[in-house]
Amino acid sequence: MSAAVRKVPMRQCTGCQEMKNKKEMIRVLKTSEGEILLDATGKKNGRGAYLCRSMDCLEKAIRSRGLERSLKVKIPDEVYETLKEELKCL
User: Fold this and answer.
1) Phi first, then psi: what are they for 86, rounded to 5°?
2) Distance CA 45, CA 54 (A)
3) C-alpha 48, offset from chain centre
């Protein structure tokens, strides 16, 4: 018998709306304290939304308010600036 085929977890980008492999994406997290941050490990507790690893997708998510809808919270401009800086470092 052959080994069982593992299912690849897929997530939808809040910017471009494409379904991609979870490991190829970045998780944006809203913690229980209401803090918005990038979760590089993908394992922290909180509500998450996924983005492709491109600045274009972050820009699209900001324009369409996709992150705000996914995280169910109003996101201030300073937080978006912080996310842009963190994304440049990755």
Assistant:
1) -65, -40
2) 24
3) 6
